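Sequence only, no structure available. Ideas?
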Amino acid sequence: MPTAIAVTSADLALPPQDERTVPAVVLRDLDRQPLDHSLVVMQGLIEQHGHVIVVCSQAAPRAVRQRLHTVRSLLESDRVALFRPDLPPLGVAVLARQLRQLASCDLSPGVLASAGRLLTHYIHAGALLGSVAKLDRVPVGLKAHAKSWVPGAQFGVLAHPEPQLVRIAPDATLAGPEFATSLLVAKGQLQSDWVTAHLAKSWNVQGLREAGLPAESAAWWGTSKLIEFCAYLPDLPVLYQLVTSVRQGVCHWCGIDVIGDRCVFCSATPPPAPDRPALTG
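Reply:
I predicted one. Tokens follow.
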């Protein structure tokens, strides 16, 4: 069985991108289920899949995050990876689906888990907002705060990879990816075609699809008057080539294959290089 890719709410489990995309495991109501139930569910996933990668939004309720850490600690298992990428909720859902695509390939659990950090760099995630008065995830200047109180004002915001904020005007745009992407759009309580008509064109996206707005998006962006969007690499061969082109190593603590400088399963980082003895002579 492939490594299980789990998400903490059903709206983070996007429809399959292709026929090879494995289903997401939805860990429902973690903050409301008895602890024993959560332990049984996670233990069952470990026994069935070997390893579990849980992708969780940073906007998830604190009780959900605490339950995940409690379950992992009580199971005393290095087979559960908890990954909370620095992305808005729609971007988290997109990344989880990319990992679900890669889970069908011949990647080891450690490399697959490490791929989450790598693929995050290729995601452009933002939103069109009706107000930035409560936005605290992206730097907002005093002028933008003042303008947010003007009736009808709208703002284009890019949260990742580099924060950007512009007030919507005929020539307003956001710096986008320099490679071919698809665009996923999730509409909240805001009426506008700026994302689909203007931004999609300026970013030269190769495909455009719509999804339901994640429940955690309003909390992340500080308003329900938004249209969230995410540009991403949709094709499995491209994702696979990106991941397999990176040099692999072995975690010195748990022995699992990894890419990058930190094991997502046991959180170990490489030991410091030994000091070289001073030359004498």
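The CA atoms of residues 28 and 37 lie 11 Å apart.
Hope that gets you unstuck.
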